[in-house]
Amino acid sequence: MHPLTRIAAIMGIVVLMVVGLTSGASAVSAAPTVVGHVYVNDNTAGTNTIGAFNRFADGKLAPMDGSPFAAGGAGTGTIIGSQGSLQVTDDGRYLLAVDAGSNQISVLRIDHDGELHPVGSPVGSGGIEPISIAVHEDLVYVANEGNGTTGSNYTGFKLHDDGRLTPLSLSTVSLPATALPGDVFFSPDGKHLVGTEVGTTDPSTFLIDSFVVGHDGRLTAAPGSPFPAQGAGPFGSEFRPTNSSQLYVSNAHGGANNGTVSAFKVAHNGVLTSIGASPYPDNQTAPCWVEITHDGRYLFTVNTASSSISRYRIGTDGALTLLGSTPFKNPAGLRPFDARLSPDGDHLYVVDAGLDAVSIFAVDGGNLTELSDSPVALPAGATPFGIVVISQDD
Question: Which DSSP category does 205 fall into?
């Protein structure tokens, strides 16, 4: 080959290599950045698992390598309705999951890459069929539904720095067999604990339990507790994140297009009094799950039977103003359940128990828009309830 021809060929190869390397670098840099993770309690029969997803800035999800992760206890393999069956600790180090099929609570360590690793063996829940967990700092309470005859209660635990969960002596509060608790949760300041008794068809069983949390972690019932609910089937509940004296409870069993959300003022001693014109109608069916924006301005309630999400503005005094309801784009058989906002508040994730999936909505103030890629399928065998959303740096 002529020297000039050979030099030109070599130069051409170098150019191609540089272009190839540049293209590869562009492809790598264009890959979406993981900003956090989403976890779902799969409630799988036999060994319970946690479905795990990587979360991206645009709200989209992709299954995490290794998902689903074994929780250690057993699920029921049947659909369970409750709020809060999966929780993350305040420091973001541990995930707590109910194992409803084995009457246990599992603790899993969250690695920096989002992978989950069980901490020791699951711990007995102190009752039968645990369905909801409340966590504040090192204090944990679990709501046990019971078997219709016995085993229904709230039971306390201490969470140690290494992730071990140990029972808190003399902490159990027994509930009647008709209670059918739906949720248990702390106020943001940790001074109050509230639980809902969904009850039966008897209005006298529609109740809200309110407690003051002592320095030792044990509970003192508020004067007059349990309080009558303002509607049938008090279910999902949440304190206003910016005001520990304002409490919201969905009333799920009012009938077709007759759902409501109650607003209460919580006194220092735990006594509940109605706010404004509470309960507030949402004109939908079976509002079950409640989530409030981190700034405390808007409330969303998931209407399971309507496959929609009602949107409210929260006034300074705690009163609610209905803004409207956003339907899921593919509602058939969806059965939407528990919901959780991302830490930045930009996206709302909803567990779909009917289709074993997670639906995703973009949040703009009090408005919701479902993403085009929604819903995202959960692992095979899931009968999901409970969801947690964390940031990558949690």
Answer: G
